[in-house]
Each structure stands twice: as structure tokens, then as C-alpha cells.
Sequence to fold (351 residues):
Amino acid sequence: MFYRSVRTLVLKTFKNVFILKTRKYCSDNSRKKWKIMFFGTDGFALKSLEELHRAMQDGSMVSELSVVVPAPKPHPCLVAKYAKQHNLPISVWPLPKEKQNDCWDFGVVASFGHLIPSRIINGFPLGMLNIHGSILPRWRGAAPVVHAVMNGDAETGVTIMRIKPHHFDVGDIVAQESIAIDPHISAVQLTDRLAGMGANLLVRCISDLHYHLDRCIPQPSHGVTLAPKIDAKLSHIDWTRLNAAQIYNRWRATCHLFKLQTFFHGANVKLNAVEPPTTEPFPEMLQNLIDVRPGRIVVDRTRNLLFVRCQEDWVAIRYVTPHRRPVMSALDFSNGYLAKKAIGQHYFDVP
Fold:
């Protein structure tokens, strides 16, 4: 009986000590406030900076926050404007070699556009985290959202990863979150949504940072695709190589960067509004056209649309801008340009 009483007392004591130690560990971990150096430029990055700044203001997780931005060309970026407005310390890239960053716990990079050298990465005791707008390893590079939309991807997301030197977007995955892509969303709208997701995911990672860092995994070696900077050459439409869905996806992916364009008898014409591919029957005028070559233009006067023959089907365009002229509806373009040409000449130029 005495043995059982002693044994029970020992077990209770051990259990209480374990609980106390666990609580102390959790309490110590929750009280940890990080010193963070943030590298960013645009609106995608700004959402994460705002969340970190909010955490610093309410006294949770972040004790100090500084910002690194590129030199203004010619105007300061959104992140620089926010930092200045809220009196956050600002450093201009590139950081001088004599600048020490070991007084900061780790760095955070979002939409920065510059390769971070080893001396800076290794200068942070906990390294650096990057917020990337894709499900890595798909769409490594500068324009992941634009490429996801342009290629008609069904889903995308955000990745928090550890930064490695020498290459963009190859580091270990700390956390990921995916979403479906609305087939009619623009790249700008999707970027805004992913920015909010990335900011929230970053805060969740930082709230238990060591747990997430201890469990990060290497990126898969398969499924790698690249998302380089967008070249203005993509604005030129080759009617022989693209179908209606591809043209529509390119329009919603790049309309914030430039207008898609073609030529009408050598004169530049910009495509202002491309309509989604339709499953409805084409107008009778299109059904009766057989063996027309790509670039053929047909006006649907009832719906005020230009239908243009592309690789394998027809794409609908609502507004265009001829060279040095104001924006025109389909009917205006028909009356001002097509009416002056014979039916056999109603074609956009093919490269």
C-alpha cells in the first residue's frame, strides 16, 4: 500500500513537472519577438509588410522591422512609400558590404527582383524566407501569376520558402497554400488575392517559426516550369498559332502591362477588350464561312463584336484602337475601316 502511494506521488510529480516545462516552453516560444529585415517593392510585397508592421504595433511576434528597397527609378516603390510614411528604417539596395545584418533574426523577401548574395543570406542567424506567388516548383521566376493565367492553369497558390544563394526560387519549402483560378480573373486581381494569402501564410509561419523551419522540405525535382519577365513581344498576335482560349488568356494575363496588337493592312491595331470563348453557337455568318484563313474579320452587328478567325476557331473582340485613333467599337471599326475594303480584304495581317 505504501509502495503504491509513493509510486502515485512520483507519477503525479513527474506529470506536473512535465506540464510546467511544456507550458514554460510554449510561453517562452509565444513571447519570442523577431527582428526582421524586409526586402520588397510592389503591391504583392506590401501586403506582407503591412501584416508584419501590424504585428509589431500590437506587440506580437515582431519587435523590430526594417525595409530594404531598390533605388527609386524615378519614383520610390510602394514598399518604400509605406516605410517612409510609417517611419520604418529604410536601406537602399544594394546593401554595402560593411552593413551588418546579424543583429536581425531573419530576412523576408517578397517580389524583390534581385538575387540575394550568400553574405547577406548567411548574415541572418535564421536565414531568409521568400513569399512566392505560385505552387513551387511550378513557375519559378519573376512573373509567376502572369504565366499561370496566360497558360490557363486551373490552380495556383503561394509558397513560403527558404532562400538559397545563386538561383531564384529553388529553396526548401516551408509552407504552401493553393487556390483555384477563376477562368475569367485577370492577373492583377489574382495577384491581389495571392498577396493577401501570402501575408497570412507568412504570419502563421512566423508565429511558430522553429516548428516550420525544422519541417521544411526540398522542392520536387519534377514539375519545374519557368516564369521569366514578360516581354512586350507577347503583345503581337499571330492568328495562325493561337486559338481563342489562348488569346483570351493572354489578354487577361497581360492587359495591365500592354494591349494586345495586330495589323490591318500594315497599320497597327490594338485589341482593347477580348471576350471569353463562347460555347454558344456562332452566328450564322460564321457557320457559312468555309476554309477561311486565319486573320479573317467578320462583324456581328447585333452584338457589336468583331469575330476574328484564329488557329482553329473564332475569337470575339469588343473594342479596338487603330493607330493614332481613339478607341472604337466593333461597329465603328467596321464602318471606318472594313467598309473601305473589299470583302476579300477583311483580314488582320498574319506575320
The chain has a mean pLDDT of 90.
